[in-house]
Amino acid sequence: MSQLFPGEVFANTIDFDHGIRQLLPRYDEIIDVIPRCLPTSSRYILELGCGTGEVSLKVLKRCPEAHIVALDYSPRMLQFAQAKITAAGYAQRWTGIQADFGDWAINPEDFNIGREFDACVSSLAIHHLYDEMKLKLFQQIAASLSQNGCFWNADPILPESPTLAEIYQAVREEWASQQGTNLADIRAKLGNSSPQGHSSQDQLATLDTHLQMLTQAGFQTVAVPWKYYGLAVFGGWR
User: Fold this and answer.
1) Neighbouring-strand partners of residue 152
2) Which numeric CATH code is attached to 3-237?
3) So where are the chain's domains?
4) Residues 126, 48: contact at Cβ < 8 Å?
5) CA-to-CA distance for 213 and 105, rounded, in angstroms?
6) Cα–chain-centroid distance for residue 107?
7) Cα–Cα distance between 206 and 160 in angstroms, integer?
8) Is 153 helix (H, G, I), strand (E, B) or coil?
9) 52 vs 36: CA distance, rounded Å
């Protein structure tokens, strides 16, 4: 199997958009939540771990005046996203930067991307950080948002008990079966990821832990607009 950065998941990038929809229940619903939680007047948006650009596309469609600055450490993901954004006619409103957002959390002065973002978004990326780094990232996000800025993150969460872990896993497998998905076929397309920068294999935290960290980081209001068993969209406002 190919060696991948955490989050790349599939050996071939072309398999990602279709494959993730077969692996994760309600993927499109998850990533629809993020742009719905953004003010349509948002003008300057930071995306952490843009992957193939699916969230970027939805945000650019919802926020007609927005420009997105997207950080991702994977050159192949950035290339794929750039092609998709360009094909949709949004090339002038999207800037992709090859970078580890963990580095940005620790040394933002090394990044010439400014501050005062109206919003920050992320999907299926931050769960690769250890909890200490998650907190540093949340603190840096809070410090980089405008006064009424918001942050929304879609990620898998750690089950609060072994019983819930079994329930979440059973739901996922039942969902795959109902879709007619052969998980063995999908898993054959996966690659082995290697640690990259501040990211490693899944480092899940409970939803409560995430919300506590967001509060500690300076978010005045925290919320969970969407949750489905072991998947959640959460965040808040400064």
Assistant:
1) 121, 235
2) 3.40.50.150
3) 3-237
4) yes
5) 15
6) 20
7) 6
8) strand
9) 20
Mean pLDDT in runs of 10 for the chain (238 residues)?
65 79 89 97 97 97 98 93 97 97 95 93 96 97 96 97 96 84 66 61 93 98 97 97
Cα dihedral angle (152, 158, 163, 164), rounded to 10 degrees? Answer: 10
- pTM of the entire structure? 0.92
d(CA 222, CA 141): 14
Check residue 203 and give its pLDDT: 92
161's tokens: 């008990």
Of the candidates 77, 101, 87, 98, the one whose C-alpha atom is nearest the C-alpha of residue 10 is 77
CA of residue 214 relative to chain centroid, distance: 16
- Under 8 Å between Cβ of 122 and 153: yes
Q: Which ranges constitute the DSSP H helices of the chain? A: 16-23, 27-36, 54-62, 75-87, 101-106, 131-144, 162-178, 183-187, 207-217
Q: What is the pLDDT of residue 179?
A: 79
Q: Which residues are within 8 A (CB) of 203 and not within 5 positions of it... i.e. 6 or more apart?
A: 127, 128, 129, 130, 131, 134
Q: If residue 118 lies in a helix (H) or strand (E), which one and from where to where?
A: strand 117-123
Nearest to 154 by CA among 77, 62, 231: 231
* Residue 26, SS3 per DSSP: coil
Residues in Cβ contact with 177 at an 8 Å cutoff, skipping those fewer than 6 apart: none
Report the distance separating Cα 187 and Cα 170, nearest Å: 17
| SS (HEC) of 58-108 | HHHHHCCCCEEEEEECCHHHHHHHHHHHHHCCCHHHEEEEECCHHHHHHCH
